[in-house]
Fold these 4 entries.
Entry 1:
Amino acid sequence: MFAIQYQVAQFIDVLGVFIPIIAILLPVFIVLIVFVYAAKSKKYKYDALIEVSKNVKDTEEISDLLRSFKEGKKSNKDLRRTGLVTLFTGIGLAALDKFGLETGVLFGVGLLVMFIGLGQMIAGYIYPNQPDEITDTVESYEKK
């Protein structure tokens, strides 16, 4: 019986050494997985572009496809929308503290988040979308 307890204690000591190592290496593995997935996704995207360009005869359509891939993902950030989401997140935090936890800390955090969302909404109305994006959208619609 004593031998089994000793082996269990020894196993727990060894496990105690590996837990911090795993905790430090886990974010590294997560970042590595994200980069590998992004690289594979990009490769598949360009392989699909090559296959589509083989079947398309119109060079203008191919150049439009290439231009869309080169531009990348435009950040279509509507500050009014993100501000509204942030505002209601703050309201939810404040309500959670007021009606659920009653610690007083989350209410202040909720107010802070609410005012950040309010500021984003005001900025969305003061600074509308970029005119270049509007012009590109109108031109693409006129081509059709």
Note: The chain has two domains: 1-73, 76-144.
Entry 2:
Amino acid sequence: MRAHEAGALHGQAGSRGPAWLDVPGDPNELVSHLWPATVRKHDGVLTVGGVSVLDIAREYGTPTYVVDEHDFRTRARSFRDAFVGWDVYYAGKAFLCTATARWVSEEGLNLDVCTGGELAVALRAGVPPERIGLHGNNKSRAEIVRALEAGVGRIIVDSHVEIDRIAEIATELEVIARVMIRVTAGVEAHTHEYIATAHEDQKFGLSITDGQALDAVRRILDEPSMEFLGVHSHIGSQIFDTAGFEVAARRVVGLHAQIIKECDYTPPELDLGGGFGIAYTTQDSPSTPAQLAAGMRDIVAYECGALGVALPRLSIEPGRAIAGPSTFTLYEVGTVKPVALDGGAVRTYVSVDGGMSDNIRTALYDADYSCTLASRSSDVEPMLARVVGKHCESGDIVVKDEFLPGDLSVGDLIAVPGTGAYCRSMASNYNHVPKAAVIAVRDGEARLLLRRETEDEMLALDVGY
């Protein structure tokens, strides 16, 4: 028989939730490291940058993504300062709009894009093209043309087909394409299968072990319209420490040294990826940028020293670690439904006005989130709750397990932290639900970054009537 759509979530019943979830002494308190830097509670009401979520809900509606601009910029600076001398690339795929593109540029970071649409946002925001890198495993001709015409700093090659495509276009445009090659190092990060990206059996990169990567380098070096910058590796996402980079760095630096020896060419750069993790719940303990920088600096220095090669210019891609913690999503409660479980336990299903259309990660990756009652305080004992969305899917779950006050009721506001990365970016119109707004808060002022989509805008695409 096929498994139920909600899968193992039905097996997580029990009166207290998963083992890592502690019953809070006070459900009104915030677990501070899960929230953006300026988030506080005053008489139970959540504030960010001095602005109350009651005012945010009143002005902008719900669901709404709320970005703490101070937190976002601070995290960007912390990676820039920790990885001094390295190029730090912000992951546009995590969350991108013209405002965030400007923020990362103003804070001295580069920007990684992987489609023509993301490139369009970066260029519109005024990001210097030489500080943009274009990723993607299937870049179209139009995307490559646009990137080369704009003068992006690097294109990361993902296949032999792309070498031909880029060389042909660069020749036509009479420009030099600055490229790196993405390699698979045969290292599998301890993360979800769909976000581990350096093992061999997946769509990204060229294998080091079977010689594809070195063959690609030779082909690029033979192309007069291409300049080879170096090797790019990425072992996955939601990675909490540098242990997984040790083997990857050994193999990537080994390829770098092999290129120097066999091709008589010294690549000037090396990118070790990143994909650093964040704290979604109390079970997560990510490293700080300073800890990550120290670990990766030591790893690369050791490997280069062991092979007798000079240290190339290094770059890193923090992934979700900048955007993710800087944002929470604000919802309004629509229904509260207690459900009896085996053994006499009860789980209360709390339905909110969003769901998998604004956060698909729980359904897609079995991701864990936490949440808090954001609109008032409560002195009622906490209850085991599951926060679910309004979509016609049993797997439409926002927060699988959380303790919320037992008097939670219709009209209350709930805030879910850690939603800055891959939530708005992966948002959909499932069930024809308009996409949520994104606002930024800083120094007591809230402003719109992306306005809420309307039904008329969705219907404008429907031309078949």
Note: The CA atoms of residues 186 and 199 lie 4 Å apart.
Entry 3:
Amino acid sequence: MKRLMAIMMAMAMLLACAVSAGAETTETTGTVRMLVAVTGGKDDAEMRLFEEALGAATNLEIIIEKPASDYDNVLMQKLGAGESYDLVYMNASQYLNLAQQGALTDLTDYIAASDILSNNVPQSEWDDLKIDGRIYAGFNKRECHVLVALNKVMLENAGIDYTQIEPTLEGYYEVFTALRAANSDEDFYPFNTIISQAWDLQPWMSSVGLKGGVVVDESDGLTYVPYATDASYEVWAWLKKLYDEDLLDPASFVDSTTDMRNKMSAASQLTAVTVDWGAWIGLHNANALAGGVSEDDYAIVAMPGTMTPDGSYSLRKGSASLFAVPVNAQNVEGAIKVLEYFATQEGGNLLSLGIEGYDYTVDADGNVTMTEIGLAHGKDHGAPVPIYKDFVFLAGLNPGFEESLEYLEYASIETIISNESDYKSIVGKWAVSMIRGDVSIEEGLASMRQELVTMGVCEK
């Protein structure tokens, strides 16, 4: 990281005059190079169409590079090698790390000088990005939340009305038991989750009133991880019970989110309940319909999980998906213009619906019709929910997604930490050991706490 900072800061000095002029309003031209993970076309051909559409809207030449895999490592390798990009996609943890290393352009003044960025994006979203009062990135999309996804048809076949599920650990245990009894496929498991990363446990931890990530103990000012406290015991014991009774897919210890989603898909249906982003509720349904599977045969619905001790719910809202401007960017003003476009109705259309004339068409009366290709793309080209605060979904939402948004009020972000990967791997490692029975839950929690402190994730 020191080499990365040195290279990028040296190049930044050569561009200081251009960067310091961020508050000036000038005609923006030239090229904007973007490194992306999820934004843009679904294949190479559509990516070229996406570049052309974005370029025509911003009066820029847009060049988008999308690594085929291992994006996080590719990002750091390219920045470390001094490659110049005007916009790079990153998650909140990477954002914090790179901003603290001095590798990102301070965009605070640019944002303040832009009527679009100041007025079209909710102030609360900007507040979440502040590091010592400064902002070093703009938005790709508005983040949603992680909640319980359920196969409605499988539930009905097991005699369950999903709206009547008791929102307790015991209530869901009974659901899983009924699903198991109603399905004779030996490869089927009622529940699949991503234990190794412990990223989708919040709907269950809410039953004991715990929040994910790292929090501050108000009594002494020290940070700790709620999932590692003795208060979490009941949830870990519940997960172990599910595993012991073949209700939890044992592949949950090694599955990726892609594996989990494939098992939940209409083509597979090897699991009936997962915890996933709200947008994936709609994407599962949209993909099924695009593949010719009717709602009578497959439908994914959303629920907020278990009720908190005070009678509410507690879900995790995603940390921001961001576009930052590296300090060696060649066209900062062009990058700002792209960020402004993303924060408009038209830019949101591109990021969600896709390319007009390819993913969708608009008739003389302004009615939007999705093409067969557009339907297959699930109205998601990087932003199923665009960042523009007044965005209108011209073609409606994917089936089930609107229902999932009803629970957004219960969601909040976790504190952004620079060593999020250590948090996930440590909690996930001991979670696997406890649920599998390699160690007792008491021993696993004690070891989890010790390792989190040793690795500097928290203070106690």
Note: Confidence is low (pLDDT under 50) at residues 1-26.
Entry 4:
Amino acid sequence: MKKLHLSLVTAAACLFATTVSADDAKPKRELKNNMMEVYNVLPGKANGITEAFTDGTFYGRLRMNSFMYDAENPAALDHKVLGVGGSMIYKTKSYEGFSMTAAGYFSTVPYTDLERSDAPDAKMGNDLFSRYNVLTTDDWTMAVLGQAYLQYDAGKTTVKLGDQIFESFLTKSNDTKMIPNTFTGLVIENNDLPQTKVRGAYFTAQKLRSHTTSHDVITVGTSEYATDPYDKYAGNDDSAVHKGLSYANFVAAGKDTSHDLIVADLQNKSIENLQVDVTYGSVPGVVSSLTGELNYNIALPGGFSLTPGIRHMQQFDNGGGEIGGSSLDGKNVKWSGSTPTYKNNGYKSANSLDSSLTMARLVLKQGALKAQIAYSAVADEADIVAPWRGFPTGGYTRAMAQYNWYANTKTTAAEVHYDFGKAKIVSGLYVMVRYAMQDFDEAKINLQSDSNILHIDVIEKFTPDLYAKFRLGMRDNDVDTQSYNEYRFELNYLF
């Protein structure tokens, strides 16, 4: 594979490093600070089917992402990855309530110091390519139809059928690389009740960011597991996946290897200053959860506001514990034929997924400033199962690239956000600094040591269409060889 010098990243940064005055008019589409898309302009209604398809709206995006991973452990794989790509989304106009959306995504790696065999060990930047495709065909390029769905709108009800993005507590696009996380299925949303949004989703497949084809929502590997040494990267190979819920283990237990994901949520703002969120999620026959969240806004003098929030997630074992064990690493159970052998490995129960996660936070806001302190604690039972990019501690104590929902893990975090553009100091500049202290359970085998995380995001919106983002993550572990620094830089141009 052709390897270009990493100075391309520096050159690209310098090319766009001159701040341009932002246009007052809103563009067709904007990016949030987490790179989620916001559509300001949507196609209107058509007078006929032909007009619906010919007079739709295109949304283009060019992207560049670069990653550098620097580990304290001399034996670890330090690496650099540069990716370029983009997307083209087309939304038709609506005719008799019906419309369609199709989105194509592309990613390629013009430079990396990784070898082909290193692909599985890449800690950062591994969503710029498909590990399975690299290992099997040495292909570092992805081109996919990530979204393709039919939409029907009637009154305050919207129905979507097909491959789509679904942002919820459990499921997110997590669109911080090149290709978003998407799901195949049916979504229904209704807003008829005052101050209330109700949604239901039924998904039959998922396509993670580093895949070119869809796969099961939770099963690790496919039917080729017995003959394909790279098969574990063909199924759900998310970093937070439960490795014990593998194709081989489901077969050994005599269970179905194909699964569906059900998500239902409700958001209510009927009580002044109070937002209530409730989410139910289920992989039938495996695991389910019920999550409630309350956030109450309190106005303070001087334009300040204080919002205390609390979130509780209760996880229920529906059969997955017997199959994959209570630990996400899958090492609490070993199948020999159709017979399982369980080991506690520091867990109170080796074969139960019953567990819970509780979080609390205080958010202080005033103008361009946002400051937050938060705490999370996982029950000393099972690890939390959530491999759909909707990180359970997100918005509370999760820092970049960290997974702190293992059993008996406690995290304390503080963060400060400042919008220099909103403060009229530096146009388009936004900075976030987060510090998290993660306390893992040393009795649990294979968990990392306690760590402190410094996470910094710097975003510059040069124009309404051009964004640059720098991210720094520094992890200091009690065991020095687990510490590392990582650096990320990305450019986004919307058109």
Note: The longest strand covers residues 57-71.
